[in-house]
Write a structure and sequence with these properties.
Length: about 90
């Protein structure tokens, strides 16, 4: 069974979908969008990936978390190489 829906897409995405159909990568716009939804549905969420990592490697320790936060700290402006933006 199928259900008819009306959706709105940004112009650029609508153009990409139409081009994919014209190129034969999908038989119809509906088929293209259905395949995209299936692809997203079949991927694990970030929470699922992190839970799996915790199961495999154990939870993140405070030391590991501190290290990760230090790696993400912004580089002071005076320490940036020339030409590197803000």
């Amino acid at each position: 069974m199928t259900v008819k829906l009306t959706i709105s897409l940004p112009d650029d995405l609508a153009g990409e979908v139409r081009a994919a159909v014209q190129a034969g990568r999908a038989p119809t716009v509906s088929a293209y969008i259905a395949k995209a939804i299936e692809w997203v549905r079949d991927r694990p969420t970030l929470e699922q990936v992190l839970d799996e990592m915790d199961e495999e490697f154990g939870p993140t320790t405070p030391a590991e978390l501190a290290w990760a936060k230090a790696q993400m700290a912004p580089i002071p402006t005076d320490a940036r190489p020339a030409g590197l933006g803000a």
